[in-house]
Amino acid sequence: MRTCVGCRSRAPANTLVRFVAVRFVVVGAGEDLRLQPDPGRRLPGRGAHLHPDPACFALAERRRAFGRALRFSGVADTGLLAEHIRAVSRPPGATDGGALAPHPDSKVGRPT
Ligand SMILES: [Zn+2]
Questions:
Q1: Domain-embedded: residue 24
Q2: Which of 38, 42, 59, 63 gives the lowest tally of CB atoms within 10 Å of its CB?
Q3: 76 occurs within a structural domain
Q4: 10 occurs within a structural domain
Q5: Per-residue pLDDT tens listing for the chain (112 residues)
Q6: Ion ligand 1 — residues with CB under 5 Å?
Q7: d(Cα 64, Cα 39) in Å, to the nearest integer?
Q8: By C-alpha distance, which of 19, 56, 68 is closest to 39?
Q9: How close is the Cα of 106 to the center of ligand 1, in Å?
Q10: Distance, CA 6 to ligand 1 centroid (Å)?
């Protein structure tokens, strides 16, 4: 069981997205941090978990939960993680009735 840093509820680790903070050096600007999704669960270092749900991502961002969970201060680039959450929160086949319009060239829902 792991705790989602967004809604703070506990869930089995395999239903959550693991991510880590990756530190990299920007020439002339010092160090920067990027949140790196780790679906394979093999990146080293301290990881944190989040439901594959944009709502949990937004909650975590609003509460600065990323820094608390991963022990860094300041701002990290959340772009990669946001993109990953968006991708995994829209499983193939779950395109009807949702708020998100299916991609125009989607091939889902056509069994052969
Ligand atoms: Zn959550």
A1: yes
A2: 42
A3: yes
A4: yes
A5: 999 999 999 999 999 999 999 988 888 878 889 999 999 999 999 999 999 999 999 999 999 999 999 998 888 999 999 999 999 997 666 655 545 555 556 555 666 6
A6: 4, 6-7, 51, 56
A7: 22
A8: 19
A9: 28
A10: 5
